[in-house]
Design brief:
homodimer, mainly alpha, Arc Repressor Mutant, subunit A, 2 domains, 64% helix, DNA-binding
DNA sequence: TCCTCGTCGATACACTGTATTGAACGATAC
DNA sequence: GTATCGTTCAATACAGTGTATCGACGAGGA
């Protein structure tokens, strides 16, 4: 056995930061907010809490579980407005979900990827279901309406965040994006086999993202309203 | 850096096993089909082609690029039926996209995550746009209609695949799923604060996935048809 | 024949998630 | 007070990842 001098002084337990799932999830969300999901590793989350990676396994069984907890935590930021008009309530839910995704872009990467059954997600679900049944009294009809709306919202958010990242990655503005992919696009379009896309590129105008989202949302809600 | 689509693949002339982007992408897709995206690593793809991982970097600049190529390749399996009725054409596109995602489940993980501008994706885009303009002559209206429809299709596919995986992961049937998450769900629902979800669990019936998809699709198409 | 140059493979690096293991601690039993 | 026990934590280890670097090799040009 080596000498005492070689051996480090025992680390006093009292100096340890108390840990909790809430603290771990908060640290992970902070990391993801600023660096994306790639910035979330058990080592980094641990380091943010002055702990080693293995310490976290007392609170979380696997990294997937941590991601599930993060997703559920964001659901707690989404409150569904209570309104007698189902359209207003569901529209409000959609807008707040989008807003949450803009605050936590990584949310879009996880959304819909696996069923969300955490307590906060269930609360959101309950509230949207309550709004839906005011229009569709049969519970199965309400479920169908909601899953359709949710599919749209998830998809729209995902592509919006995707485009946001694409333009940002190529240099913070759309001009840079065009110079990056421009030559390729021009060459492909030059063969004349994409007349409609050509027309879109030359004659189309761009809506801002919020308008795009709202337009699509209106279309889906109209489809729902038209149901028997 | 310029895009993959712009850069020609190298014409390496050695007596080694001939390699090509097509071969690399095919190998990667085969791996992803049987083992999911986690099974796609440059080492494994290389091994499938009797090559080391570094060899691939002559054909592909980064792994992300390989994923982009895989996504575009799947788009080549999606052909849009040419029909004078825009609803039939777009419905056909949606069904084939879903079918492709069921053949390549990993497709759902990548779909919508970043703009798809590969040649095959552009071809699909052109065809859907062509169908859309027959109903919405103004190109901007066609774009809005399409992006709404695409958001729904992407979102619906993603949740369908997500649920498919969830039920499969917990043991191949829904009964097993209920015994896994059942106790937790029962406990949460027991507090009486989720009356509508309770009603859904007790009184609701399950549609099969194809019906769920078709129902939502019909709703969105109805919303589109109702536009001025 | 020699030289250059592009391509290839081995090695290396900084990371990842997580299994294992052993040590340090608080509480409990005598 | 001392001994023991079970829990909690940190260190180490392992297999795997994407990719940078670099030496070697083989073909094309002089």
């Amino acid at each position: 056995m080596e000498s005492v001098w070689e051996r480090p002084e025992p680390a006093g337990r009292t100096a340890l930061t108390p840990l909790s799932r809430a603290a771990i999830v908060a640290a992970a969300i902070a990391l993801a907010d600023s660096g994306g999901l790639d910035a979330v590793s058990l080592r980094k989350v641990g380091a943010a809490l002055d702990a080693g990676p293995m310490r976290l396994y007392g609170y979380v069984a696997t990294k997937e579980e941590l991601l599930d907890l993060m997703v559920d935590e964001v659901h707690s930021e989404i409150d569904v407005p209570a309104d007698t008009d189902w359209r207003i309530a569901l529209h409000g839910w959609a807008d707040r979900t989008r807003a949450a995704a803009l605050r936590h872009e990584w949310f879009a990467d996880l959304l819909g990827g696996r069923p969300a059954i955490g307590p906060h997600a269930l609360a959101v679900n309950e509230a949207t279901l309550a709004a839906a049944v005011t229009r569709f009294p049969a519970i199965d009809d309400a479920r169908r309406a909601l899953s359709t709306l949710r599919a749209y919202v998830n998809g729209a958010i995902r592509t919006e965040i995707g485009e946001l990242r694409a333009t940002r990655a190529t240099g913070l503005d759309k001009l840079r994006w065009q110079t990056t992919h421009g030559p390729y696009l021009m060459r492909v379009l030059a063969d004349g086999r994409h007349p409609h896309i050509e027309r879109l590129v030359s004659d189309g105008t761009d809506d801002d993202p919020a308008t795009v989202f709202a337009t699509g949302l209106g279309i889906v809600l109209t489809g729902l309203a038209a149901l028997p």
